[in-house]
Amino acid sequence: MSPAAAPVRSPPRAAKERLRLWIRMLRLTRAIESELRENLRTEFAATLPRFDVMAALYRFPDGMILSELSRYLMVSNGNVTGIVNRLVNDGLVERTLRGGDRRTSVVRLTGPGARSFESMASAHESWVNEIFAGLAPREAERLSARLKQTDIYPRIAP
Fold it and tell me: What is the DSSP track for the chain?
């Protein structure tokens, strides 16, 4: 006779509520991201990854090497290289050799690239503001602070 299998127990209520929270957050994030992607596409003929690369380079006006940019964005070097190449071709990003080393280049926004990003960033902020318009500023601040206080935040946030 085989040993009896352990009974399957339902997770406690707290675990179920946390799972529901995760699902709601994921659905909300996906819906917001979808709307932002569509807005970037229709208003600027841009993609969200392109916006993200430009945002990172805007934060680092002295430029970044591609591996730093990849780590910062938490994506592969290959993904970043393709986006950067297209931005260079469009005149929005420039690539220069790092200290004369032909193996390592630094990428940074050009003047037109910075102005283009500023225009996209302004629209992006407006779209996000519209999406969260039903949330009072103080409520948004409290929710953001609370999410930051969770034990998991330091493990997932760069």
Answer: -PPPPPPP-PPPHHHHHHHHHHHHHHHHHHHHHHHHHHHHHHHHS--HHHHHHHHHHHH-TT-EEHHHHHHHHTS-HHHHHHHHHHHHHTTSEEEEEETTEEEEEEEEE-HHHHHHHHHHHHHHHHHHHHHTTTS-HHHHHHHHHHHHHSTTHHHH--
Q: How many domains is the chain partitioned into structurally?
A: 1
Does the residue 32 lie in any domain?
yes
Model confidence pLDDT, tens digit, residues 43-69? 999 999 999 999 999 999 999 999 999
pLDDT digits (tens, 9 = 90+) for 88-100: 999 999 999 877 7
Q: Which domain holds residue 123?
A: 18-156
Tokens 């970044």, residue located:
64
Q: Which CATH number is 118's domain given?
A: 1.10.10.10
